[in-house]
Amino acid sequence: MALLLALSVVAPTVAAAETTVTVQTDPATEVTDQSATLSGNLTELSGADSATVYFEYWVDGDRANSTNTSDMTVGETGAFSWSATGLSNNTTYVYVAHAEANGTTAVGAERTFTTLAEAPLGVDTLDASDVTNSSATLNGELTGLGGADSANVGFEYWIEGDRANSTTVGQAELDAPGTFNASVSGLSNNTTYVYVAHAEANGSNVTGDQVTFTPGVTDSDEEDGPFGQRVAAFVHDLLDSGDYDGNIGQAVSEFVTENNPGADNRPDDAGPPEDRGDDEDGDEQGPPEDRSDDKDGDEQGPPEDRDDDEDGDEQSPPEDAGPPEDRDDDEDDEESDS
Question: Architecture of 20-114 per CATH?
Answer without folding.
Answer: Sandwich (2.60)
